[in-house]
Amino acid sequence: MAEKGKKxxxxxxxxxxxxxxxxxxxxxxxxxDAIDEIxxxxxSSLSFEELYRNAYNLVLHKHxxxxxxxxxxxxxxxxxxxxERLATAEDGGLLEEVAHAWSEHRITMVMVRDIxxxxxxxxxxxxxxxxxxxxxxxxxxxTVWEHDRVQPRVTDLLLRAVASERAGLLTDDxxxxxxxxxxxxxxxxxxxxxxxxxxxxxxxxxTTQEFYRLESLDYLSRNAASDYVSKARGRIEEExxxxxxxxxxxxxxxxxxxxxxxxxxxxxxxxxxxxxGTGFAALLRDETKVEELGDMYDLFARVPGxxxxxRDALGERVRGDGRSLVADQERGxxxxxxxxRGVLKxxxxxxxxxxxxxxxxxxxxxxxxxxxxxxxxxxxxAASCLAVYVDExxxxxxxGAGEAEVNEALGRVIVVFRYxxxxxxxEAFYKQHLAxxxxxxxxxxxxxxxxxxxxxxxxxxxxxxxxxxGMFNDMRISRDTRDAYKQHKKTLAQAQSASASASASASxxxxxxxxxxxxxxxxxxxxxxxPNAKPVDIEVDVLTAGYWPSQNVPPCALPPPVNDxxxxxxxxxLRKHTGRKLSWQTSTGTAEIRACFGGSSGSNYRRHDxxxxxxxxxxxxxxxxxxxxxxxxxxxxxxxxxxxLRRHLISLCTPRHRVLxxxxxxxxxxxxxxxxxxxxxxxxxxxxxxxxxxxxxxxxGVA
Length: 703
What we know:
It comes from Pseudictyota dubia. By secondary structure, the protein is mostly helical. The protein has 27 helices and six strands.
């Protein structure tokens, strides 16, 4: 039998009782009183849990509208009391009063929001109303801020406070300014209004622009450019610091900086560059003002478009200095090496300006390069002068220099070389000078010569220097050929010595010695009239025609002993190199002749070894058989071109080396009938005398 169980009683559901309007009003009344207490800062006596439950019940029983509208009315009432107080406040304390009212209102709204949190999550979202906290801020804007005795006065006080700071006067605590501005920003964010932009930012930016427009004009009219730069830099930093201290948003700070930079920099960029005596263009003339130039660049760099004024000034300065160098060179006030040294000095100076003042800016470096190219490529002058400058370096300028010094000097040459647009023109000039150095043995060192070619090769590639390297190769092969020819002559001499005795050479009164057009080292010979004379000894450089500068000068008439020596060398060379053809260049080369002065004997007898060109040798040997010759006769006998003949004759008639006497008076050679005679009275302290050639422009006469 089943155990007797307990009795279960089923009770009906409780009947849901809807809160009536009277009950809702009663609950709202308690909430309203609580809001008053919160506003009065008596919230410590309130039970926020009970208040939250009451608000919850109102919303739950469909009285959300009553609650929402009641809160709005209650907040509006308190805000009306606040604005009445603010409207009558004195200007001196208005900012503080507004900041305090705003702070109190925010605290109130945070507490009210916590009580009405359920309403925010349900009623507000369902009915698309403003959340309670944002509602409070919206009402503050409408009721307090937009009151005609609050907004205009606060805005004016804010702008005046900033103006006082700019004038250097003490102002109110910046925290008040920051609090009021933060209020405007939060009010605008709360309801999507542009209250901050409309009521402060637009006026603030406008007054800022006007202030700096007037101040910059006044300050620039009374001060030097460098002082203005310092002032502007200080003002820009001051505005940046103020924007940070006042908590201005990026949307204000960016246009603020733009306005300040436009008024202080962009509008006066041209004037700052061109100011007489103190502007950027004037400072470029002074090598000691690099720091001031850098300060101006740093200022202009804030407005990138303004830097073009500085670059233009730099370019114009470089072109102006360059044109002055060109003018000096044209007037003859500066020789080619001096011209290049001036260019290098300019490059060093203005390169330093770009590196230090322009902070190494690539666009400034490009403008510098373009400016140098502008005046250096006006004609072929720069290429010619640079080749002469390199020739001077490699002849004597680098004598005794170490490897590092050589590379540094040649590196500066390459800097100028890069500016030349037609580098083939330089190569042609350079090759002519290189040929003279190699054939005359006048280079400071082979290492320096090869270092220069290596730098050109690195700059322009193998094709550019292939002919130059071919010239060095020819010189190396020529040394081997000379050594082989010496050995060949030694072998012949040994064979001849077995059957004949050697004879001593004798000198004639005029002296004679020769080399053919490609000889290198000095050699000695006696007169061809002496049958017992030693054969003329020659040293020949055999050159590849395609590598060396072309010489379209017909050979002159060489003395018979020299022709005999040429024949002996050709027999030796062509036996070893069949199929080749030797073309003798008599317009180049040197010779050493032994000349006797003062008669054939006696106390006045003097003998000198003269180092002369091939043309000078041909001229002097004519005086072995004649005491006086005319220009026309010498030209006929030697076949030397007229211009070169005059130049070489004048070189033999200079006051310092008057080996020949000119018959006519004055500096110029009068004509074909002008006579020249051997000067028996010539004397020199040196045993071995080198007769230099005068320049082509001096061929009009001698002193």
